[in-house]
Structures are given as structure tokens and as C-alpha cells.
């Protein structure tokens, strides 16, 4: 039996992902989600709430060791699922492909499936609105570049297309769902969807008003400093940024050649390939939320349908973008199957191994890496995961890689904060080049020092 926990317990233990579920449940004046010094969203409020242990909070925080895990939730949500797999959970059917209808594929980061499904639920009259992430109209005034919004038309839903590697929270949108009757679909990363499912189990109102959940495959959550680093490296004043596109799409380039584009207030744009950014190697873990070190869900196992990128050939070289899709809800499965039959979706069925292969790096981090991290000494609330602690199976090389990744994740927050405070970007640049080069050599070249030296020189910019 785990004793009741408070929001402070989870935050101080490095297990808060910033979803905002606790703030939504509290529904108290002055209780809100705010950016901390590292550019991550954390709950704030009166100490009587923030420090008070609560059984309800302990059951509904997605990283609480007492919360029901993904296996339990999925079993109750999808008891008749045709397939069950240790990596991708329970599911009806898995697909790879893209939207053939209209311009969904062109306007999305990948194959356009997320926006299409959201639109189709609205077209079919199954929902009244979609809770999803959109760009802020005036980020400099709002103090953030992206936020959740409820969209009620197809045009509004389309504004949420493309990837957002930025901290967002559900508190305000859940409050709207509580106050405004209707049926809503919620789109989110795995831990956010888990938070919604836990909240639905706790509160019948949310069970009634959120009949559909759409999940996004996830590597990890970035902090808001990621955008600031983009600006530093492109020699752009942060206050001049009007819009951020993390994955600017070019059909003539492979989909996995990420390109970041910043649109400025004067309408001009600047671009840089992630490969040429000092912190652009996703696998190195720059600005990763510490809670992501203790997540074991890659593919949003508790969502009615979830979507990722098909990171295997020939799909990863197709600049138009290709989705891998896992369907769990029979209702959503019927919608998808009918659209395939009508030629609106170009999807081929695949098995669980194919889905796992497309997210191989994510599963290594969230399964074997997590098993190793669970053996490390740490303070505060101890995570309880579906993966068992294991420090014996991994090779020495893999252990070093996970140690370096953890060092980069934690260090990037601190070093960037220090350089930001002093307004000395070069301090951060030098550190980032060094650790990125070391990680590159370890992860891709068996620790070859000449490769580290070569990468360090490439990142000089």
C-alpha cells in the first residue's frame, strides 16, 4: 500500500510531466500550471493544496506509483481486442500508410492521419469538438508558443496539424470540458492520454464527455528552451519569433531529415537542419523532462487509436510522410476500414513486429534503458513500472550510452539556464558540441574517438 502523495512529492521527485491533471482536479483559485526556471510546466498553488497528500491525486497522476498502469487500463478499455503484445499493447489492427483524401498528408508532419481521424469523428457526428494543440496567435504576449484548444470545425482542426515538441498542459482544456457540455476527443502523447483515462475512471463527468482519445507515439517531452536554443543558433532574437515549425516539410527530402523553421514578426523565415544544430540529435536527450526517464509507453497504449512515423525504409525516405497506426477501438476501426474501402485512406495492414521496428530506438530507451535506470539510486517517490529493474543484461557499451544520455538530459537544463542568465550562448554551445560529439561516437561508432572529434568539428557551425 502506497501512502497518499501530494503534487509537491511528484514534482520534487522529478516525476512531474506537466500534464496539468492535478490542477484540473483541484479547480481552485490561484492553482495553475506555470513555467519553471528550466522552461518546463509545473503545478503551482497554495501550499495547503500543493503540499497536501491526496488519495485522488495519488490515483490519477500518470507517474504516481499507485496509479493503474497501461496494461490494466487497456484491458478494461478494450477487453475484446484481437491482439495483445508486450510492446504495443492491446489492439484491433495496425496499419502503415497515409491519407489519400484532400491535402491532409501535405499539411501534416507525417501521413496526415491524426488530423483526418479527428475530422472524421466530427463529420460522423460522434463528437462536438477536439481538444488538441495549436500554435499561439501571439506567442510573445501569451508567453508560450503552443497550447491546447477545443476546435469545433474542420478548418479549426486542421490548424493543429504538424508536430509540437514543446511543453503543453491539459488543465485549462479539462476545465472547459467540465464546464461546457458536449462530447470531446482528446489528442495527446501517451502520458497525457493515460492521465485522461485515469481521470475518466475517477470522475463520471469526464467519462461521459470524453468518448474518444487519439494518441501520439512519443520519444520524450522537450522544454521550452529548445526553441530558444534554435533562436540562438540561427542568430535570431527570441522576442522576434512569431511561429515555430519543428519539422518543415519538403517532399523532395527524406522525411527523417528534420528541418526547423522559425517565422519572424516581419514575416521572414529562417531554417536549419537538425543535423547542424548542436542539440539536434533527438536520441541524445537534450531538454528532456526527467519524468520521461520513467515512462514505458511508446505508442499510447491507452488511446482508441494512436499514430507515429514509419521510421523504416522505404517509408522514412518518402518526404511526403507516412504514418504507422494502431487501432484499438472497434468504433474507430470501423471508420478506418470504411475509408480504406472508399479509397480515402491508403493504408496496408501490418503486424506488431513491424510497428515495434518503426519505433525501435524508443523501445530500447523505454524498456531496456528503463530497466537499467530503475537500478540507479534516487531520492523521493520511487517509480513503479511494468519493466523490472535490471543491471545485468545490458552490455557495458549500452550502459555507458544510457548514462551519457541521462547526463545530457539533466545537464542541458542546467547549462542552458546558466548561459541564459549570463547571456553567453557560447558557453552552452561549447558544452553542447562536446557532449553531442561524445554521444555520437558512443551511440553510432562504438566509442571511436576520431568520430567524436569529427562530429565536434562539424557542430562548430
Automatic annotation (TrEMBL):
Residues 95-174 form the Coenzyme F420 hydrogenase/dehydrogenase beta subunit N-terminal domain. The keyword Iron applies. Pfam families: FrhB_FdhB_C (PF04432), FrhB_FdhB_N (PF04422). Residues 183-352 form the Coenzyme F420 hydrogenase/dehydrogenase beta subunit C-terminal domain. InterPro entries: Co_F420_Hydgase/DH_bsu_N (IPR007516), FRHB/FDHB/HCAR-like (IPR045220), FrhB_FdhB_C (IPR007525). Its cofactor is FAD. It comes from the Bacteria. Keywords: Iron, Iron-sulfur, Metal-binding, Oxidoreductase. Coiled coil: none annotated. GO terms for molecular function: iron-sulfur cluster binding; metal ion binding; oxidoreductase activity, acting on CH or CH2 groups, with an iron-sulfur protein as acceptor. PANTHER family: 7-HYDROXYMETHYL CHLOROPHYLL A REDUCTASE, CHLOROPLASTIC, FORMATE DEHYDROGENASE SUBUNIT BETA. This is Coenzyme F420 hydrogenase.
Amino acid at each position: 500500500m502506497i501512502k497518499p502523495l501530494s503534487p509537491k512529492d511528484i514534482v520534487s521527485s522529478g516525476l512531474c510531466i506537466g500534464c496539468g491533471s492535478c490542477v484540473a482536479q483541484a479547480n481552485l483559485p490561484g492553482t495553475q500550471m506555470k513555467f519553471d526556471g528550466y522552461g518546463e510546466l509545473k503545478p503551482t498553488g497554495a501550499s495547503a493544496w500543493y503540499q497536501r497528500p491526496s488519495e485522488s491525486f495519488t490515483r490519477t497522476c500518470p507517474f504516481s506509483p499507485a496509479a493503474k498502469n497501461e496494461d490494466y487500463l487497456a484491458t478494461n478499455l478494450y477487453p475484446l481486442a484481437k491482439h495483445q503484445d508486450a510492446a504495443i499493447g492491446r489492439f484491433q489492427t495496425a496499419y502503415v500508410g497515409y491519407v489519400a483524401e484532400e491535402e491532409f498528408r501535405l499539411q501534416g508532419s507525417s501521413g496526415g492521419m491524426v488530423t483526418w481521424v479527428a475530422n472524421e469523428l466530427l463529420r460522423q457526428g460522434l463528437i462536438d469538438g477536439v481538444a488538441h494543440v495549436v500554435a499561439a496567435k501571439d506567442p510573445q504576449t501569451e508567453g508560450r508558443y503552443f497550447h491546447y484548444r477545443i476546435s469545433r470545425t474542420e478548418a479549426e482542426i486542421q490548424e493543429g496539424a504538424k508536430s509540437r515538441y514543446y511543453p503543453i498542459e491539459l488543465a485549462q482544456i479539462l476545465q472547459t470540458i467540465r464546464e461546457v457540455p458536449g462530447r470531446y476527443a482528446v489528442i495527446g502523447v501517451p502520458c497525457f492520454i493515460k492521465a485522461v483515462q485515469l481521470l475518466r475512471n475517477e470522475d463520471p463527468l469526464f467519462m461521459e464527455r470524453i468518448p474518444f482519445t487519439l494518441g501520439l507515439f512519443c520519444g520524450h517531452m522537450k522544454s521550452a528552451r529548445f526553441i530558444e536554443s534554435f533562436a540562438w543558433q540561427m542568430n535570431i532574437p527570441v522576442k522576434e519569433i512569431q511561429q515555430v515549425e519543428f519539422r518543415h516539410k519538403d517532399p523532395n527530402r527524406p522525411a527523417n531529415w528534420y528541418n526547423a523553421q522559425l517565422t519572424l514578426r516581419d514575416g521572414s523565415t529562417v531554417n536549419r537542419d537538425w543535423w547542424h544544430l548542436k542539440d539536434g540529435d533527438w536520441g541524445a536527450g537534450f531538454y528532456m523532462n526527467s519524468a520521461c526517464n520513467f515512462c514505458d509507453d511508446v505508442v499510447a497504449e491507452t488511446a482508441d487509436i494512436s499514430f507515429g512515423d514509419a521510421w523504416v525504409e522505404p517509408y522514412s525516405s518518402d518526404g511526403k510522410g507516412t504514418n504507422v497506426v494502431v487501432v484499438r477501438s472497434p468504433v474507430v476501426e470501423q471508420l478506418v476500414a470504411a475509408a480504406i474501402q472508399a479509397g480515402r485512406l491508403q493504408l496496408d495492414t501490418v503486424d506488431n513486429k513491424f510497428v515495434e521496428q518503426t519505433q525501435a530506438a524508443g523501445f530500447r530507451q523505454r524498456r531496456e534503458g528503463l530497466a537499467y535506470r530503475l537500478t540507479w539510486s534516487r531520492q523521493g517517490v520511487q517509480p513503479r513500472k511494468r519493466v523490472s529493474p535490471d543491471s545485468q543484461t545490458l552490455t557495458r557499451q549500452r550502459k555507458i550510452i544510457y548514462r551519457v544520455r541521462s547526463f545530457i538530459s539533466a545537464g542541458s537544463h542546467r547549462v542552458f539556464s546558466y548561459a541564459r542568465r549570463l547571456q553567453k550562448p557560447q558557453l552552452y554551445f561549447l558544452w553542447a558540441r562536446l557532449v553531442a560529439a561524445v554521444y555520437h561516437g558512443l551511440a553510432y561508432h562504438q566509442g571511436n574517438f576520431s568520430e567524436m572529434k569529427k562530429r565536434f568539428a562539424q557542430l562548430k557551425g
